[in-house]
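User: Putative membrane protein, Chryseobacterium arachidis:
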Amino acid sequence: MEEKHNSFFQPQRQSKTGIVLLFLYNIGMVVKNLWVFIILFFVKKDRVEPWMIILAVSVIVLMLIIAAVLQYYHFKYYIDEENSEFVIHEGIINTSVTKIKKENIQEVNISQPFVHRFFNIYKLEIDTPGSSEKEVKISALTKQNAVDLKKYLLEESVVLKNTDDPDEVFKPEKNEVRSFKISTFSLLKYGITANYIRSFLALVSLVIYGFSELNNLLKKVNFDPKLDYDTLESQFLAFSVPVILGIVLIAIILGILINSIRTIIKYFDFKITENNQSFSLEYGLFNTRNSIVNKSKVQVITETQNWIQKKMGISFVKFLQIGKDEEEEKNISAVPGINDLEKEKLISAIWKEKPVFTDCLKPNFRLIIVNTFKWVVLPLLLVFFIEKDLLINYWFLAVSYVILSELLILISFKNLKLFYNERFVSVKSGIWDIDCRTFEVEKLQTVKISQYFWQRKTNLGSITFYTSAGCFKIEALHFGKLRKLMNYCVYKIETSKNI
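Assistant: Predicted structure for Putative membrane protein:
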C-alpha cells in the first residue's frame, strides 16, 4: 500500500524493505570485487574443508546483514525549510551529512531497477551542477513518496506556513500537459542505424578481454594454455581477403543486432510528458527510469543524425544542463528515434520558438591542409623514423590509411559550419553522425576568439563558446566576422545580466 502524502520536513527513513535491498546490494558488491577468488574456489574446492566454507559464508552473511541494518537506521533524509536545504544523513559506523540547497538541485530522477520491482519500491537520484555523478541516492522509496519528494524539490510551489493541514505544504501550479511516445519501431530504426561502429569495436574489445582473462585464469590454476600468438597470426593472415571481410561483416551485423536489442531494452516504452515548466522522460524495460528536465535550465540542445536516419526521418536529441558533460551518456537527458515533427515541437517548447538561422560561416580550405599534416603526414613521419621497415613492408596499409584519412578530413570539412542569428548560435560538425549543437546567446558564459601569427596574413582565426554545459570551438573562420560575432555575444551577455 502506498503511503500518504508526506511533507518531508521531519527526518524519516526509507521503506523497510530497503534493508533487504541493501543486503542484496552488499552481496553484489562482494561478488563484483571478489569474483576471481570465487571462480578459483570452485576450481580448487577439493582443497578446502566443508566446515571452512560454511564458517566463511556464515561470517560474511552476518556482516552483510549487520551492515545493511546499520545503513538503514543511519540513513535519514528531510527538508530544512528554514535554510531551504535538502539534508541526508548516512553511514554505517561513521555517519556523514550532505546538505544541498534547493535552488542548486538541477535534476531529480526516479527509477525502478529490476531488483526493485520485486519489492515495489523506487530509487531516487538528485543531481546538482558541477558533479559528474549523482550527489544523492535514496535507494528504497514507495512510488508516492518518490513522486512527492520530486515535486517538493523541483516544482515551483507556494508554501503555506499557517495552514491547518500540516500535509498541505504546497500548491503546485496547474499546467497544461501534453504527452507522446516513441514507438518501438522508431527505437528499432534508431538501434539499427546508430552506434554500430561503437558496437563492433565493443564486441571486438569484449572478445579480446575475454581471451585475456581466460588466459590469466588458466595460468593461476597452473594450466599452461600454450597459445602461440605468432602461429595464430600467421594462420589468420593465411585466410583469403573475402574470408576476412566476411568475418568482419558478421561481426558488424552481430554488433548491430546487439545494439538494437540494447536500445529497445534501455528505451522501451519511451514516454515524454510536457507541461509549462518542464518535461519528464519515462522509459525502460527492466530498469524503469523517470527524469524531469526543467526547460529554463537547458543550456545546449544537440541534434544527432546520420544520412540513413535523415532518410528515415528520425534523430537523437540530447539536452545538456548546467555542469553536464556531453561524453557522460548516463548523465544526459536524451530522446532517441524521435521523428522530425515531434523534434521541432519539443525544441520549440524549450526555446519558445524554432531557431531559424540567416547567417552562416564556413571554415577556410586551409583547415584541410592543417588536418592533413596533423592526421596524415605527422603520423607517417613518426612511423618512418621509429620503424622504417614496417612502413616499407606494409606500404599498402599506409596508402589505404592516407586515402581513408583524407576522405574523412574532406567530409568533416564539408560538414563543419557555424550558424547564428540574434538569439541563437549553432555549431554543426561530424563525419557520419552529424551533430548540431544549439545554444542561446544570452546563456553563454563568455566568448573568446584567437588567431595564430601565421593566420594574420590570411585573416583567419578560431572562436570558442563557453557554456555551463561545456565549451565548443570552431577554427579557420574569417577573423573579422568572428570579432563582430564575439562583440555582439558579449553585449547580449552583459545586458541579460543587468535585466
